[in-house]
Amino acid sequence: MIQASTMTGTSTATYWKLKMSLRRTVKVVGLGALALTLSVEWLDWLRRRLRWWRRGHQGPLKEVLFFPTAITCVEHLYTPDPRIASPCPCPCPLPHGLETSFTRLLRHLLSAAASLDLCVFAFSSQELGRAVLLLQGRGVAVRVLTDRDYMRITGSQIGALRSAGICVRHEMGAVHMHHKFAVVDGRRLITGSLNWTLTAIQSNKENILVTEEPDLVLPFIGEFQQLWDANDPARHYPRATPPSDTLALPRETAPSV
User: Fold this and answer.
1) Which neighbouring-strand residues pair with 209?
2) How many Cβ atoms from other residues are within 10 Å of residue 257's Cβ?
3) Which band of pLDDT confidence, cut at 50, 70 and 90, is reported for residue 211?
4) Using one digit for the tens of pLDDT, what is the confidence trace for 40-95?
5) Which of these is catalytic: 76, 96, 185, 236?
6) DSSP H or E run through 134
7) Local structure of 67: helix, strand or coil
8) What is the pLDDT of residues 133-143, one digit of tens each?
9) From CA 107, how far away is CA 22, in angstroms rounded?
10) Does residue 178 carry a catalytic annotation?
11) What whole-number distance in Å separates Cα of residue 150 and Cα of residue 159?
12) pTM of the model
């Protein structure tokens, strides 16, 4: 009887030792996981701080623009010449040298040096169309995604872009491609409520956000590429010439947006 009792006591002691050892192991593993998580977060914080430091302590570009905008001459933005002292030599009657939301938008757009991915619902602004054509003429790789119905309205710039050799794709599904964003050089995002139309620029209450924050830019890059691939004509018309209505031909005027 005494021997059985001793064995029971030994088993109980062993059980509690194993239980305590397991608890310590769980705690160590938990603390290790916590330390790893904190290390990853710290490294991410350090990476952001270094990027912020390299940008001159200002952090990634963030700018908000509101519309409608004042009407001003923007000729100097298309043909900048450091030899000319005045901000704009154009003799037109519009105000010269004013910095507006539209001139800021043009500056961001014309800053493209390598690529421009444009995804926009309505595009009839001649000034913005001129800027895109200028970039293409400089050798910037331009891709345009637009809406099938609105690319054919009277005044649309899509036909001019295609005629210049710019690759344009439109939404192939039944829904509208209602995005309004551009990605410049894969690092600068221009997005907001603004359609690229004269009415939106000069008459509507609109907004634009310009940023180089990677956490905001990267999702738009992914969205553009997904739409670009999904609306590849080769996927929809693999063995035949696309129907004529996929071409950017003038059509009935749609309501201004």
Assistant:
1) 64, 191
2) 15
3) very high
4) 666 665 666 666 566 555 688 999 999 999 999 999 899 866 555 455 668 889 99
5) 185
6) helix 126-137
7) strand
8) 999 999 999 99
9) 63
10) yes
11) 12
12) 0.72
